[in-house]
Amino acid sequence: MKALVYRGPVRKEWADRPMPTVQAPTDAVVRITKTTICGTDLHILKGDVPEVVDGRILGHEGVGIVEEVGAGVRNFKVGDRVLISCVTSCGKCEYCKKGMYSHCEDGGWILGHLIDGTQAEYVRIPHADTSLYPIPEGLDEEALVMLSDILPTGFEVGVLKGKVQPGDSVAIVGAGPVGLAALLTAQFYSPAEIIMVDLDDNRLEVARAFGATKTVNSSRGNPVEAVLELTEGKGVNVAIEAVGIPATFDICQGIVAVGGHIANVGVHGKSVNLHLEKLWIRNITLTTGLVDTYSTSMLLKTVIAGKLEPKKLITHRFPLSDIEKAYDVFENAAKERALKVILYQ
Ligand SMILES: NC(=O)c1ccc[n+]([C@@H]2O[C@H](COP(=O)([O-])OP(=O)(O)OC[C@H]3O[C@@H](n4cnc5c(N)ncnc54)[C@H](O)[C@@H]3O)[C@@H](O)[C@H]2O)c1
Ligand SMILES: [Zn+2]
Ligand SMILES: [Zn+2]
Question: Domain named Enoyl reductase (ER): which ranges (predicted)?
Answer without folding.
Answer: 8-343
